[in-house]
Amino acid sequence: MARTDRSRNIPHWYAPEGETLSITAGEGARVTDDDGAEYLDFVAQLYCVNAGHSCEPIVDAMAEQARQIPYVSSSKTTPARDELAARLADRAPGDLNDVFFSISGSEANESAIQIAREQQDASKVLTRWRSYHGSTYAAGGLSGDPETRAVVERHAATTGVGKFLPPMVHDSPFDGDTPAEIGQQAADHLEFVIKNEGPDSVAAVLTEPIAGTSGAYPAPPGYFERVREICDAYDVLLIVDEVISGFGRCGDWFGIGTEGVEPDMITFAKGVTSAYAPLAGVIAREEIGSGIRAAGHPLGQTFAGHPVACAAGNAAMDAYADGLIENCRELAPYLEERLGDLEARYDEVATVHGRGLLWSVVFADPETGEPFVDPRVEPDADNPVEAVCEVAQDHGVLFGTGRPATQVICSPPLCVDRADVDEAVEALAAGIEAAF
């Protein structure tokens, strides 16, 4: 068939009523479309191009690996894969020393819960409402986001997953007077859920240390310390989903590092290669890794730990260590200050929250405190938050809406500077003024 006025590619998260941007080039924190228009990429495409769009050492490492040997079976070892596993273990907290590679964040989370169920001889995994862990069948069932979970479960129910309430301070399901009280109530609630599911039936708690697309909200003070205590008390594994929060995004190698808590497993993807090639996986405590080695693991994926992707991962880790994570830490207070200016300037901005270079700008009706449109219950209504992003794009800056789309997520490459932050905030302000 002759190509007419449309691509034969069907994009993901496709909505027929919208326009699809065609991106043809990128440099640093900016991308260019096929009309030559340039955009500041303040969402790092999908929260993943952490090292920016033109990190030549990553490209060179991939090309060198492809020339040496482009593919090695995931059932074998190869130097690039072994090197990256060792480096990930070195950067992970505590005794998380064993790495099981995968391809995408969804598959990493599925691998982690498979390992947890085998390790614990229990089937249930507890995850938050207001969470996102992927869109394959098992990962979609883990997600608390109804836009994903309901679509996945429309024709086949997912099993073995329970839900608990998120430790959010803004729009919290709890009634504590301070963030610390809310954190205590949220942790107590998790303990209540574990008790009532039956602790012996619960293999793991899977949670984002700082929420990603589900809202960039960090936990209140003391929450994760209490969650660690609860998991230890009931012999439940703690798995943290670092698919978005990892690799410098929140100012440390892993988001859980900003909480000072050691999980039993970390799942990772996206930023591990700065998205230059697909790669993901699980980093597990040595005790868990030793158990897998002793018993064997009869499952695998053809492209898990692809050598070219591992070479990209090694080069990306060099880039993060060579100033990008430090830049994130130094720039984070300025991004927080400028987004705070929007909260002070516009009544429609209910709150801003986040950590590092991962932030959410939440919108609500100032008279009621409720979303102007809640897409969870009004999926077909015109949403002014989406209009904010559209106008910001017209002003040359790309943002994404969160889950639910009552918020705009700010997640730029770690190579941005103050001038980029100023440009992004002013484009966001233009979107707010136009939409409201």
Overview of this structure, please?
With 436 residues, the chain is α/β, with parallel strands linked by helices. The chain folds into 2 domains: 23-54 and 324-435, Alpha-Beta Complex (Aspartate Aminotransferase, domain 1), CATH 3.90.1150.10; 56-319, Type I PLP-dependent aspartate aminotransferase-like (Major domain) (Aspartate Aminotransferase, domain 2), CATH 3.40.640.10. It is built from 12 helices and 15 strands. It has helices at residues 44-47, 56-68, 79-91, 105-120, 137-142, 146-152, 179-197, 223-233, 286-295, 307-345, 384-394, 418-435, and strands at 23-27, 30-33, 38-41, 96-102, 124-128, 161-164, 202-207, 237-241, 265-268, 280-285, 349-355, 358-363, 397-398, 400-401, 407-410. The strands form 3 sheets. Strands 4-10-9-8-7-5-6 form a 7-stranded mixed β-sheet, with helices on both faces. Helix 3 (79-91) packs parallel to helix 10 (307-345) and helix 7 packs parallel to helix 8 (223-233).
